[in-house]
Specification:
Order of helices and strands: HHHHHHH
Oligomer: single chain
Shape: globular
Number of helices: 7
Radius of gyration: 12 Å
Length: about 100
């Protein structure tokens, strides 16, 4: 999650090579992917998506990456989601 807070692609890549748990959550239920979206770091979002981070997980506010990106009009992150994680509404309802 550190790379998501500071927006460092090199830290993100290093942590991934060290088998960082991409879908771990903080106290608010946010994953690294949710944090990178909130902090508007599309490069980190892309790195996490290409390495298997789950964009459908929701935090304690019931937000997922797509809903956060839509709410904040983050077109670049929405484009990344469309490319790397197409909408799966039936799956989204389960998570």
């Amino acid at each position: 999650m550190l790379a998501s807070y500071v927006g460092s692609p090199s830290i993100a890549k290093l942590l991934i090579t060290e088998d960082a748990a991409l879908n771990d959550r903080n106290l608010h239920g946010n994953t690294a992917l949710l944090i990178a979206t909130k902090r508007k770091f599309p490069e980190i979002v892309k790195i996490l998506l290409t390495h298997g981070a789950n964009p459908n997980l929701r935090n304690k506010k019931k937000e997922n990456v797509r809903t956060l990106a839509e709410k904040n009009q983050q077109t670049e992150i929405l484009g990344l989601l469309d490319h790397y994680a197409p909408k799966t509404k039936w799956l989204d309802r389960l998570l």
